[in-house]
């Protein structure tokens, strides 16, 4: 058994392995070779292959993104030593970690969680996928007097990016993200970005989009909402709720009959609020983290 880096000639076999491994996963959309290579390039994924006698036995991927350093795509051919191959791939991918921690995401009810715990990972929080039906317009919650709820205007993109990053306390959004949204969906424009203006500046934002991949594969009419971002000094004034309702009504007008979003399970204020707006938890994932000391990383 040897571990090596992915090359494009592996694409066909990797697609087969991933599609077989994840076929029963929640809302899984099968990979194509083109889609796989595009994702690897765009996200700068480092993919490791476990190979034995020129046959791919498994793979794993490392990603470094805005959420931190992450392990993805742990997929191994069913065989008598599959656990050994999984552990070997995890050990090798951990060597790519540059910081002091790495995480992975697992279904909340999956027995795989115990395997990760045995590898030294700890469960810390999780993520909800929440969905709601869109049938009738929702009344907008009250916001402070003189607040204006509207769409983003051209030329305000940088102000919006600064708002989001200040609200989250880290660089969650970049200016090129808006350009990328437009490239991927010709229907998308500033009209789909809903903002609250108060005190002469933007104080809150919610981005709506068509959930295009889901709709094309499952034949749906579902919209998607990015998480609301509100400047810290303007939170708890109803801006996020009002913009979420405005965005839901906007998607209804655009022909969507449902909407989806993601929110952290640790966001204790967000989940009850979203449930009041008609959202339900459709799926739950858990985050598992492993922390490294410099000594343990050096010896790994």
Features:
13-stranded mixed beta sheet; 300 residues; Aminopeptidase; 10 helices; elongated; alpha+beta
Characterise the protein shown here.
With 300 residues, this protein is an alpha+beta fold. It folds into 2 domains: 2-126 and 287-299, Aminopeptidase (3-Layer(aba) Sandwich); 136-256, Aminopeptidase (3-Layer(aba) Sandwich). 33% of the residues lie in helices and 32% in strands. It has helices at 11-22, 33-43, 82-94, 112-118, 157-168, 175-184, 212-218, 239-253, 270-276, 294-299, and strands at residues 2-5, 46-52, 55-65, 68-76, 101-107, 122-133, 148-151, 193-198, 201-210, 222-225, 229-230, 258-264, 280-291. A hairpin with a 2-residue loop joins strand 8 and strand 9.
Question: Topology of this structure?
Answer:
Layout (H helix, E strand, L loop, with lengths): L1 E4 L5 H12 L10 H11 L2 E7 L2 E11 L2 E9 L5 H13 L6 E7 L4 H7 L3 E12 L14 E4 L5 H12 L6 H10 L8 E6 L2 E10 L1 H7 L3 E4 L3 E2 L8 H15 L4 E7 L5 H7 L3 E12 L2 H6 L1
Parallel strand pairs: 4-5, 10-12
Antiparallel strand pairs: 1-2, 2-3, 3-4, 5-13, 6-12, 6-13, 7-8, 8-9, 9-10, 9-11
Number of strands: 13
CATH-assigned homologous superfamily of the largest domain: Gcn5-related N-acetyltransferase (GNAT)
- Report the structural category: alpha+beta
Gyration radius, rounded:
21 Å
Helix-strand topology string: EHHEEEHEHEEHHEEHEEHEHEH
Shape: elongated
CATH class of the largest domain: Alpha Beta
Architecture per CATH nomenclature, i.e. the level-2 architecture of the largest domain: 3-Layer(aba) Sandwich
What is the fold named in CATH at topology level of the largest domain?
Aminopeptidase
**Span of the ends, CA to CA:** 19 Å
Low-confidence segments, given as residue ranges, are none
Multimerization status: single chain
Helix content: 25-40%
- Main beta sheet: 13 strands, mixed
Number of structurally distinct domains: 2
Tally of separate helices: 10
Strand content: 25-35%
Overall pLDDT level: 94
């Amino acid at each position: 058994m040897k571990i090596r880096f992915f090359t494009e000639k592996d694409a066909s076999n990797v697609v087969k392995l991933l599609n077989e491994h994840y076929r029963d996963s929640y809302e899984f959309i099968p990979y194509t070779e083109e889609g796989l290579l595009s994702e690897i390039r765009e996200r700068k994924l480092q993919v490791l292959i476990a190979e034995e006698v020129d046959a791919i036995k498994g793979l794993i991927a490392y990603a470094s993104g805005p959420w931190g350093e992450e392990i993805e795509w742990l997929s191994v051919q069913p065989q008598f030593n599959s656990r050994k191959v999984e552990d070997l791939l995890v050990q090798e991918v951990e060597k790519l970690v540059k910081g002091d921690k790495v995480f992975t995401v697992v279904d909340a009810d999956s027995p795989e969680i115990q395997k990760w715990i045995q590898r030294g990972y700890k469960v810390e929080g999780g993520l909800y996928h929440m969905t709601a039906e869109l049938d009738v317009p929702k009344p907008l919650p009250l916001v402070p007097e003189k607040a204006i709820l509207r769409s983003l205007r051209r030329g305000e993109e940088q102000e919006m990016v600064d708002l989001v990053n200040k609200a989250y306390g880290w660089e969650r959004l970049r200016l090129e993200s808006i350009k990328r949204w437009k490239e991927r969906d010709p229907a998308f424009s500033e009209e789909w970005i809903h903002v609250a203006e108060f005190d002469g500046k933007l104080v809150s934002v919610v981005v709506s989009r068509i959930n295009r991949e889901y709709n094309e594969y499952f034949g749906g009419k579902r919209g998607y909402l990015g998480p609301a971002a509100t400047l810290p000094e303007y939170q708890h004034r109803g801006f996020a709720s009002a913009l979420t309702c405005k965005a839901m009504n906007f998607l209804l007008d655009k022909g969507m009959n449902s909407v989806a979003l993601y929110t952290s399970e640790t966001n204790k204020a967000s989940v009850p609020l979203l449930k009041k707006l008609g959202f339900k938890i459709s799926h739950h994932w858990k985050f598992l983290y492993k922390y490294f000391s410099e000594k343990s990383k050096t010896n790994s």
